[in-house]
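Q: A reviewer asked whether we had any structural model of the full assembly, not just the individual parts. We don't, so I'm hoping you can provide one. Inputs are below.
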Amino acid sequence: MLEIKNLHASINGKEILKGIDLTIKDGEVHALMGQNGAGKSTLSNVLVGNPAYEVTEGSVIFNGKDLLQMKPEERAHEGIFMSFQHPIEIPGVSMVNFMRAAVNAKRKYHNQEPLSASEFLRLMREKRKVVELDNKLANRAVNEGFSGGEKKRNEIFQMAMLEPTFAILDETDSGLDVDALRIVAEGFNKLRTPETSAMVITHYQRLLDYLKPDIVHVLLNGRIVKTGGPELATDIENKGFDWIKEEVGL
Amino acid sequence: MEENKEKNKLVREVAEKKYEYGFTTDVHTDIIEKGLNEDVVRLISSKKGEPEWLLEFRLKAYRHWLTMKVPTWAHLQIPEIDFQAISYYADPTAKKKKEGSKEIDPELMKTFDKLGIPLEERLALSGTAVDAVMDSVSVKTTFKEKLNEKGIIFCSISEAVREHGDLVREYLGSVVPYRDNFYAALNSAVFSDGSFVYIPKGVRCPMELSTYFRINAQNTGQFERTLIVADDDSYVSYLEGCTAPMRDENQLHAAIVEIVVKERAEVKYSTVQNWYPGDAEGKGGVYNFVTKRGHLRGADSKLSWTQVETGSAITWKYPSCILSGDNSQAEFYSVAVTNNYQQADTGTKMIHIGKNTRSTIISKGISAGKSQNSYRGLVKVDARADGARNYSSCDSLLLGSECGAHTFPYMDIKNDTAIVEHEATTSKISEDQLFYCNQRGISTEEAVGLIVNGYAKDVINKLPMEFAVEAQKLLSVSLEGTVG
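A: Here is a predicted structure for the entire assembly that you could use as a starting point for your response.
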């Protein structure tokens, strides 16, 4: 599904990613852990084509296509979704209009007719249940006046609406209380199919308890320095990163 | 060099493609000689077969105009206009008139069809009567007979002068006197056509009335005049639309709209202004210098101005309300979009005279490209206006970093009991917002459209349904290619 080779990227001229190699197969959930500034968010942003980041070397192939040649919206249409660490507020634009534009843009890309108003509203109702999103929130402007937890829930709601094949969760657990975390994580699990895969960025074991990653990577100083099974996350939760740093000589 | 030229041509093509109404109509048009003097004023009056009192009115206005200077207080860069290089009368219906035919030239019918304004009643938008004006002449007014059954008069102002002379004489110039300002004096001297509406006492106009203005002829000015009188307990909703061909030289449009609202009457006046704005490099476009004013004469009367301004190279326009009647209510809702080299200085005046009068001003400016967009508004509360209230909200949205947004609110409050509130915000569409939309699969252009329409929706929602849909599309088209 996703094949990243020797990926280098920088922001404002500063190199953050220094050669990432990562392959994620259909149906797999990969967790990406690492200290602040290691490059986790940079990797996510590069994959979704954020223009603030510059790719200087390397390649990313997504389902046989050259991802780096695609515009951000084309990547979305091809099935990539990112749950933002800091979801953006768009005053004046209702969630309904926003989602309708997004859903119909994807349908157009795949040569499908746009959904009628009633079909669309039915879809909204159905998907809202996945993350128990309040109807009132769905009628408000995008993220405007939402609490931190509501914003994260809204991200997973959008994911439910767009049905991506590859999802990136960028610190979706930060700012969530225990109940909200459970709702978001269970919501995510409900959306999983044998074909969908995900990359989950987190500092904590508790989200991974729900999501049960197949593979865990440790990112340090712009490179993946260690890869293991779910037990690696538990080790990090208990021991921190220092022992890994020592192991790799950083 | 060659490459640059090619590129400029491309830019031009793209910019021009976005203005859908830029075609010209090939029709025999009777245009009088360029220039302005008393003989020209007399010629216009005689071409229209006007009575003596109207000629006198025109001449007085003309003589007063000679004593006036071009206003320069607006935040606008207006190139000097040679008023002797303009023709003041162009009649595209002259040939048929000469032939003694009442038929409308098929070319004119085709033009209005192309503009989406069919002049055959069976094809018309349901519930809308249209007065179609090209250059200096009203081509046709639809549904006149049907409205007549209710006593409603809806016709061109030329026809009103002939058929309802007393009514026109009573109200013409009573809201905007010819001495009001430079362009009002000019208009009063040379005005050609426009619409006249009279809604009798107690009548609710059963359909939307609308006037569609089209400039076609070259080197001409359009000086339209609209007069709306709503008698006691009546109601009317009135729409105005306008387009012009794409021409390299600038065209002058200096109109007057006067509205009289009597006791308990209500008038809604909506404009979607889409005059040719000039090309991407600022060449050509219409100068839109317009005086619009309503007088709420009766107690408990209501007037609302709603305008969506996307066109014109330069806009100078302040639809205003004089709230004389006690408890009268006035509203001004405006979205003004400027792109490329467009300039707009627009806003309103709310003059509170009656007791317990209320006014609301909602202004939304959107600037892109290298344009300049100003809100200028006056709230005046007279010493007599006990309990007057005003709420003003002026927002500016900037797209890009080379455009300008300015707010000039004036207040003149002479009564202690008045409550006047003013809020203003300036915002910018951020890269983060656009990227968030992109990540969800929404292209940058569509995202700008969504955000702008969301920003303007308080105003758009005030427009009648069909106009609202048009206005939304227009906003998106006007701003295509402004970001990214």
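A: Points you may want to mention in the reply: The longest helix of chain B spans residues 444-460. Residues 113 and 387 of chain B are 49 Å apart (CA to CA).
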